[in-house]
């Protein structure tokens, strides 16, 4: 019961941070959050501890916890590290993919296309994260996947904002289609190359002067 409350609080806070409802620098007051989320302060405190470990929140001496400010430069550097690991995961996924998993990847891609066509960019953003999760499941490389999860958590708001930028969803959809096509075809070199190309594109977009502080890519 306590674990469920903590997990619920963690997910709610993580989502609020990624969408900008709790912006960088926002103080996290345990008592207020407990009332808003319908859990006790202990659950909120434990949830905040998890988010601190993930790099989303920080504790300031004598001031309490707040949403951590992640600069564009840090987001770029983190994404460059993630690019290498995601390339490895895509390669492993292409080596190990089954027909059933290939079908799931293609179905996910179709759902992403529908979201972009319908202008539902919030849904598209969520579907991107799910696609990466499917690739990780297919790769069956828990060490690399775990490292990616930690890196991704730190820049989730930047990538979320990026996915809402005009024209960016169409670009990323094309890039991710190439990734899925290569994995489904059992082409490790192609899968790794397409994944690296996608994340290079993400880095370039984050580095543009118009980039806003903020996260899926």
TrEMBL record:
Cross-referenced SUPFAM superfamilies: GntR ligand-binding domain-like, Winged helix' DNA-binding domain
InterPro entries listed in its UniProt record: GntR_C (IPR011711), TF_FadR/GntR_C (IPR008920), Tscrpt_reg_HTH_GntR (IPR000524), WH-like_DNA-bd_sf (IPR036388), WH_DNA-bd_sf (IPR036390)
Pfam families, A to Z: FCD, GntR
Domain HTH gntR-type: residue ranges: 3-70
CDD domains: WHTH_GntR
The protein's name in its UniProt record: Transcriptional regulator, GntR family
Keywords in alphabetical order: DNA-binding, Transcription, Transcription regulation
Keyword GTP-binding included in the entry's annotation: no
Organism field: Modestobacter italicus (strain DSM 44449 / CECT 9708 / BC 501)
Key word Oxidoreductase present: no
GO MF annotation, one: DNA binding
């Amino acid at each position: 019961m306590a674990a469920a409350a903590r997990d619920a609080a963690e997910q709610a806070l993580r989502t609020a941070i990624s969408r900008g409802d709790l912006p960088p620098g926002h103080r996290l007051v345990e008592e207020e959050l407990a009332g808003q989320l319908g859990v006790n302060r202990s659950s909120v405190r434990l949830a905040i501890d998890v988010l601190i470990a993930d790099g989303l929140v920080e504790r300031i001496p004598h001031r309490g916890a707040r949403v951590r400010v992640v600069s564009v430069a840090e987001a770029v550097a983190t994404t460059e590290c993630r690019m290498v690991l995601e390339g490895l995961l895509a390669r492993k996924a292409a080596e190990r993919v089954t027909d059933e998993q290939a079908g799931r990847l293609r179905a996910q891609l179709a759902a992403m296309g529908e979201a972009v066509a319908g202008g539902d960019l919030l849904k598209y953003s969520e579907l991107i994260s799910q696609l990466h999760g499917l690739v990780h499941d297919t790769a069956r490389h828990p060490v690399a996947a775990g490292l990616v999860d930690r890196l991704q958590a730190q820049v989730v708001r930047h990538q979320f904002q990026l996915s809402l930028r005009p024209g960016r969803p169409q670009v990323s959809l094309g890039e991710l289609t190439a990734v899925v096509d290569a994995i489904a075809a059992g082409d490790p070199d192609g899968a790794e190359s397409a994944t690296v190309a996608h994340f290079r594109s993400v880095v370039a977009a984050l580095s543009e002067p118009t980039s806003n502080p903020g996260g899926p890519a």
